[in-house]
Amino acid sequence: MVSAVEQLAKNVSWGAFSKATELKQRILFVLGALLVYRLGTYIPVPGIDPVIWNEIYSQKGGGILDMFNMFSGGALQRMTIFALNIMPYISASIIIQLATAMSSKLEALKKEGEHGRMKINQYTRYLTVLLASIQAYGLAVGLEGMQSASGPAVTDPGFFFRASTVITIVGGTVFLMWLGEQITQRGIGNGISLIIFAGIVAELPRALAGMLELGRQGQFNLLELLLIFLVIVAAIAFIVFMERSQRRVMVQYPKRQVGNQMSMAQQNHIPLKLNTSGVIPPIFASSLLLLPLTILGFSGMQGGEVTSEIARYLQHGQPVYMLLYAALIIFFAFFYTAIVFNPEENAEMLRKYGGFVPGMRPGKHTAEYLDYVLTRITAIGALYLVVVCLLPEVMMSQYSVPFYFGGTSLLIVVTVTMDTVAQVHSHMIAHQYEGLIKKANLRGTGRGRR
User: Fold this and answer.
1) What backbone phi and psi angles, to 5 degrees, belong to 207?
2) Dihedral of the CA atoms 52, 53, 56, 60 (nearest 10)?
């Protein structure tokens, strides 16, 4: 009996999906856009010898370079037009959001609604172009100074190479920024997150093969290999559990007189997620750690003592890197939660519609209570993010586990998958409701004719 009911539920879900034309078009658009992105990660930057660059990358690989390559979906290792990926846009978003929190003019612009949001997005795009230009120029200068035993990485260095490299890489970053916005508007899920997600997932098979090869070479035995996989599976299960956890604040609405009718008292709740900020804190923290080292490491200062010391302290597994990473994750967890959920606005909204939290007076006391609850659960959520992101860092430093199995990459893959599936499910439910409404209207029309 149970199996028959499950089969019926599957048939209903598949039937709803097969009839949801708009949903299918959105999914196909996302797949097409991500396919274009993956093709772009194989288009090389002109003027670079790929064989020599592979030799140089093999020598310099590890640490920050591999982490940046993970976010670029392997584009940096292949030195393609998407070498910077979408990271300049994320860095620009961080700067604009921090500026909005500190600037009264930007804060007022944010409250203007759609017009203000479009204006802030435009500022973010301008800043993205500026940051991408700086990083691309540093990358071009750094490439000119790199060489292996076989020769230099750049076949014809000079002004033309630098100009063409900056134009090519900045153009690739701007294209990805536009592509991410198109995915968000015309597809399913958040476009920027899906681009990073696609880059990580596409490189997972290669990372898995590399880890198995390390096991074959005897770097770790079978028991250690099984332990690593068990830790990864446990981390995924832990992420799923924590991402679904929420604190429900009870809200009551008293009886109200609406015209000649008396509405009954209602009881509802405000769902506060344990991790309101999602995957934003690890991405923002990684971006800020990558930004200065990218500029320094790919500039003419790559051989300097200061750069070498900074790079050494910020290697994965180093105490300074772990402390900075944890501090930035905690900061952005609280910062982004404060942007997403405003206790005073929510308390005012409850008071406006006659709702109240049991035991709390409407207005200021309700806002203080919501802020108290939100601070406590955000502290737990920030600690969860720190544990998930730093525990695999130890594994990477001790057992040379690939970056694609790190905490940040696992968190991105799991949360983006959950959010996308949730949006697909919401579209299917909306389509089913539309179908039921249409059927009810048709039946009502038929009865009226009779």
Assistant:
1) -65, -40
2) -170
Q: Is the dihedral of CA 313, 318, 321, 327 positive or negative?
A: negative
**Range 41-48 average pLDDT:** 90
Q: Answer whether residue 172 shows pLDDT above 50.
A: yes
Give the SS3 label for residue 316: coil
**pLDDT tens digit sequence for 90-117:** 888 878 887 887 778 887 887 777 788 8
- The domain spans of the chain are 2-449
pLDDT per position as a tens digit, 383-403 = 999 888 887 666 666 666 655
Tokens of 58: 């093999």
Determine the residue type at 316: H
CA distance 230 to 228: 5
CA-to-CA distance for 52 and 61, rounded, in angstroms? 14
Residue 141 · residue 162 · CB < 8 Å: yes
Query: Buried b / exposed e across 370-386, counting CB within 10 Å, b at 16+?
Result: bbebbeebbeebbebbb
Q: What proportions of the chain, in percent to the nearest 5, are helix, strand and coil?
A: 75, 5, 20
pTM: 0.76
Q: Report the 10 Å Cβ neighbour count for 436.
A: 10
Any idea which fold 2-449 has? Preprotein translocase SecY subunit (1.10.3370)
